[in-house]
Structures are given as C-alpha cells and as structure tokens.
C-alpha cells in the first residue's frame, strides 16, 4: 500500500508538515515573553479577567519550569490536529445530517475509531508516514475527530423540523437552508464537539510522543520510562494547564455562539 | 378560472404507496387499506377549487388529514397521485427550481407553532423570504417594514422572537408570509396556539387584512367557530376525505351527512346566523297609494302590515302601516301619508341573531332589515328566527334577498 499510494501519502505528509511548521514558527519564533503576554491578553479578551489571571499564572509557571518550548511544540500539534479535525469533521457531519446513508456508514467507522486502542493505529501511521510529528497528528485526528462529526450531525438534526419546513416553504435552496438556518442553530452543539476534539487531541500528545512527535508528551514519556516522579508531575501539570486554557476558551466561544 | 384547483389529490404514507391508489379508487376505506397493506391514507382523492380572493377553510379534527392536504398544495409533502393546478398549471410537474420560484413568489405560509427563526430578529425573520431571493438589503428591509406595519408590529423589528408574546409572534409569522406578496397564503392552524381572546382579535384582523389585500387564503383549523367566522368556503374533512364543501350557511343548514350534522350540532347558531339569513321578502307599498289600496293589498297577501318605500330612491324605507290604521284612515278620509309609523325597529343585515332577541321582544311589528343607505332589504318575523335556531332551512325568498 505504501508503494502504490506513496505519492499520496507524501502529499498528506507535506501538507500536515507545513501546517505544523506554520504554527511552530509563530509559537516558537515569537520571543517567549511577548507570546506569553499576547496569549494572556487574548484569554482576557475572550474569557473573563479571572481566566486571564489564570492564563498569566499558568503560562508563567510553564515558562519558569522550563517547558515553554516543548509546550509550544505540543500546542502546534494540538492546534494542527484540531484544525484538520474541524476542516474534515464539520463537512462530514453536515453530510451525515443530510444523508442517512452517509450517517449509517460513518457511525460504525467512528465507533471503531473511538474504541480501537490508540496504540494500535500508531503502527500503520509509522509505516505510512515514518516517525515524527506527522503520524502523531494523524493518530491524534483519528482519535479526536469523532465528537466533531457526531455533534455536527446531531446539531443539524436537532434543528426543529417546523423551522426546516418554514425555510422550505419560502423556497430556500439547500445551501441557503444550511447557512441561514441549520448551521447557526447547530453552532452551540458543533462548538461542544470541537471542544471535545481539542481535549481529546491534547490527551493524545503522550501517545503521539512514542512515535517521535516532540513536545511535553516526550517529557512525560521519558519521566515514566525513568520513573522520575517529579519530572513526570511537572510535565503532566503543563498539559493540564494547556488543557484548562483550551477548554475554557472554546467553552466561552461556545457560550457566545449560543446567544 | 379558479386560482387553485385540486383533482383526485391523494397522499398515502408508507413504502411503495402507489399500490393503494387503485384500492382507493375502488372505494376501500382508510381502515381496510391499513389492515390489508399497512399503508396509511393521509388524503383521499380530495377535490376542490378556490377562487381568487376567497378565504377557503379546510376544517377537520386532528388526524383528518387537513395539515397534510395543505402541505400537498406547495409540495412540502409530495403527493402520491392527483393534480394541483395553480392558475391552470400543474404544480406537481415543476422541477426543483420551478418549485422554489413558485414557493417564493406565489405561496406564503404561516405555521401553527409560528416557526420563527430564533437566531434572527423580527425584521430579519420577516425579510427571510426576500433575502433568499437575492433582493438588496435596503429594498427587502423596506418591504419587511411595510409588512410589519401591516400587522401592527412597528417598533418591534429589532426584538427577538422569544421576547414577544404568542399573539405577537404569530403576527410576525403573518408578516413573514405576506412580505413576499404571494398570491396565496397558506395558514396551517395559524391561530390554534393562541389564547381564545387573542385568537378572536387575530381572526378579525385577518378578515380585515384580507379585505384590504385581496389575498387568497387557505386556512386550516379544527375549530368550527373559527371556520364559520372567517370562511367564505369551508371544506370539512374526515379520515383524509373531504366530506362536504360549502359556504358556512350551507354547512350549518344543509349538512351533507350524519358526521357533519354531529359536528355542527353544538354550534350556537344565534352567534353565527345574521339578520340577512332569516329575513324574508317584505310586502311593500309606495306612499302615493291610498289607504284603500293598502288594505286590499294586505288582504290579498294575508299580512297585517305593509312597508312604505320610496321606489324612486331604490326601495328606501319610509315607514310601516298597519291594517288597523288603514281601516281608520278610510273611515276618516285621511291620506296614507298620515298613518305611516315612521319610528320602527330596524337592524342592519349583518346583525347577529342573539342581538335581535331583545329588539324583537319590544315590538309587535316585524323588524325591518335596512342597509347602510336606508334601503329596505327584508323583514324578520319571530317564526323565521325560531325556525333558523332550530336548524331548519330558511325560506328560499329570504336567502335570495339576503344575497342580492
């Protein structure tokens, strides 16, 4: 398979590699403290001041513990996985909502992806994309994309039938119906899916580090292998701080989209 | 030509529904078809035609197929067989794009539970139908505002639907349906979710709007009083079939079968029938005639009073003379003019019967029915009112006069 589809996998590898690199350049190319201030300001602006304060303390702690560079690498991986999950997952979810056939095919596949132990698909990921960040992103996407697809599907199907009927009765085209009615009303549910996807891809970073995706995951993995409890907790704490920040930020956006 | 005409329109729910169409043609009942084929008959070979400017009411209890029937008209539900003709062209032959244009331009719809888009403001809801046609923002806003003003919601345009009461929400629904300026407005139990008092207001407003805008309205309801109040024509449905079509009076006075009879038996006729339904042709005389002629006329016709009218002014009512007075006048040699009673009870043709009772109790004379320019349209005697309330058909003469 890798022989026949070699060029295809190369293209995927190239695209994903470019996205990760893009995030990486922005996140690690910017001076640490400047980026820190920007991130805190952004959190402050989107969420409330309390979240801003948490971001300030949390990010300073990460920097102080010396995990800044690795944390940003992890963030690149998570953001790439999340971005691609959204780009692939939302349209797929829309398709599922429109066609029962698609839903009937996709649902078991998603069940499979979610229940299959993540370690199992690390192996094929390596054989197709070799070691590094790209198979890490791919396996993160496989693990993290189901909530976005499921909740996009659900959100659109939950739009009350009478509203869809009203949109039809006034002569909407299918895409007008989608953009003017279904997506706006499904947005809170879709955002809940995206939130879950981000959380899940963050939980994949340690596993992804096993196949060479650099970042905080590597620190955790090394601490586990060498039974260094202190380092393990420090690196784990960094992941927790990132998780809380990403979760609260997406949740705030979610709540805003509800209004 | 009627604006909407449906022929043998049938909707059957279930898999492979076409197989039940011949069974319906053979006269199988809804129950029998369900028993034998597991198919549910929604609408069974319905036929009617609606004239431009009519309020056509489709009435039936829940499950009678009325909501399905109205959705067949704009193909929100795809008919199984039959024809829907709009200005003579078959709606069922339209492709997706033609159907969209038809829905955009020709048929508006108002829904039972309002179906307003919660993420859009009132004015954004109203302009939705125009927006999807690609109309410019300024133009559609202007038209939406006009429509809102029509339903009395000016000043609420920037509110969200959930900030409005039920009655106001349905006004928004009505404004949205009218904004496209469609030829036909479909209203699916539009007022059923409203409080009785608000519902009555909305009915009045709808009648007023309709007389202003001359829209053709197809109105679905399960409420007979509502149907009788607003309908020009009423189609009564049961088990997917149309049982009777007629004017409110025809439904009340000549029920087609036991089902319709049972439906209408609880109606308080005194709140529905008007003076024009029960009045009969008056015996008249002009003021130039003498008392002798008057008395002779009364004897010939077997009545005890005559209405004096001015034939030159189109039957303008002047007063009434009684046989007693006429006999007196002959004895004393008085002209007819001297014995006319000019003060007499009179009502307008659309006075409800329950308002008539008191007037009739206070007089021995029949009550005169005069129109707004004072012309005599008919008279009401007690017997006719009682007969009408008992559900008997009103004498032909009275009905004809009432419609002239």
From TrEMBL, chain B:
It is a peripheral membrane protein. Residues 278-336, 340-396 form the CBS domain. It comes from the Bacteria. One of its GO terms (biological process) is amino acid transport. This is Quaternary amine transport ATP-binding protein. Its main location: membrane. It comes from Paenibacillus abyssi. GO terms for molecular function: ABC-type quaternary ammonium compound transporting activity; ATP binding; ATP hydrolysis activity. It is found in: Cell inner membrane.
């Amino acid at each position: 398979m890798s022989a026949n589809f070699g060029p295809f996998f190369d293209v995927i590898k190239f695209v994903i590699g470019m996205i990760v690199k893009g995030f990486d350049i922005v996140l690690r190319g910017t001076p640490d403290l400047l980026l820190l201030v920007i991130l805190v300001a952004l959190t402050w602006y989107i969420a409330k001041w309390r979240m801003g304060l948490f971001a300030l303390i949390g990010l300073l702690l990460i920097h102080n513990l010396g995990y800044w560079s690795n944390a940003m690498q992890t963030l690149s991986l998570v953001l790439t996985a999340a971005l691609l999950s959204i780009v692939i997952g939302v349209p797929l979810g829309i398709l599922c909502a429109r066609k029962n056939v698609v839903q009937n095919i996709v649902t078991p596949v998603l069940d499979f992806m979610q229940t299959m132990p993540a370690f199992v698909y690390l192996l094929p990921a390596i054989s197709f994309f070799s070691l590094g960040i790209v198979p890490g992103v791919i396996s993160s996407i496989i693990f993290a994309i189901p909530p976005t697809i499921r909740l996009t599907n659900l959100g659109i199907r939950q739009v009350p039938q009478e509203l869809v009927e009203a949109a039809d009765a006034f002569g909407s085209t299918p895409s007008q119906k989608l953009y003017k009615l279904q997506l706006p009303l499904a947005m809170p549910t879709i955002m809940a899916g995206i939130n879950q996807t981000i959380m899940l891809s963050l939980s994949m970073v340690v596993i992804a580090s096993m196949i060479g995706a650099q970042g905080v995951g590597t620190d955790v993995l090394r601490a586990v292998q060498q039974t260094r409890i202190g380092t393990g907790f420090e690196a784990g704490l960094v992941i927790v701080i990132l998780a809380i920040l990403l979760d609260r930020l997406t949740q705030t956006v979610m709540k805003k989209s509800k209004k | 030509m009627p604006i909407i005409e449906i022929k043998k329109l049938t909707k059957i729910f279930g898999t492979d529904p076409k197989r039940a169409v011949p069974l319906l043609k053979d006269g199988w009942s809804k129950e029998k078809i369900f028993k034998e084929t597991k198919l549910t008959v929604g609408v069974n070979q319905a036929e009617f035609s609606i004239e431009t400017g009519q309020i056509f009411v489709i009435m039936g209890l829940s499950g009678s197929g009325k909501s399905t029937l109205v959705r067949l008209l704009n193909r929100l539900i795809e008919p199984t067989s039959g024809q829907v003709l709009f200005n003579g062209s078959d709606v069922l032959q339209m492709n997706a794009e033609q159907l969209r244009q038809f829905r955009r331009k020709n048929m508006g719809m108002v829904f039972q539970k309002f179906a307003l888009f919660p993420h859009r403001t009132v004015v954004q809801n109203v302009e939705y139908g125009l927006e999807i046609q690609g109309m410019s923002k300024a133009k559609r806003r202007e038209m939406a505002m006009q429509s809102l003003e029509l339903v009395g919601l000016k000043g609420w345009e920037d509110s969200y639907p959930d900030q409005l009461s039920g009655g106001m929400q349905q006004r928004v629904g009505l404004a949205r349906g009218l904004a496209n300026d469609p030829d036909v407005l479909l209203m699916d139990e539009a007022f059923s979710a409203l409080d009785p008092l608000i519902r009555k207001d909305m009915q009045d407003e709808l009648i007023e709007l309709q007389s202003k805008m001359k829209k053709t309205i197809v109105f679905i309801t399960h409420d007979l009083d509502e149907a009788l109040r607003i309908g020009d024509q009423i189609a009564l449905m049961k088990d997917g079939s149309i049982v009777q079509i007629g004017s409110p009076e025809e439904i009340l006075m000549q029920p087609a079968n036991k089902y319709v009879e049972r439906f209408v038996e609880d109606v308080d006729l005194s709140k529905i029938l008007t003076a024009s339904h029960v009045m009969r042709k008056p015996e008249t005389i002009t003021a130039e005639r003498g008392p002798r002629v008057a008395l002779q006329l009364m004897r010939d016709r077997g009545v005890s009073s005559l209405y004096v009218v001015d034939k030159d002014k189109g039957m303008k009512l002047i007063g009434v003379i009684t046989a007693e007075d006429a006999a007196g006048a002959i004895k004393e040699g008085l002209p007819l003019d001297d014995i006319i009673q000019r003060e007499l009870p009179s009502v307008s043709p659309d006075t409800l019967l329950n308002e008539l009772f008191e007037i009739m109790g206070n007089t021995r004379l029949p009550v005169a029915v005069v129109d707004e320019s004072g012309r005599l349209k008919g008279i009401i005697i007690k017997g006719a009112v009682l007969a009408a309330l008992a559900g008997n058909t009103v004498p032909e003469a009275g009905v004809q006069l009432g419609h002239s």
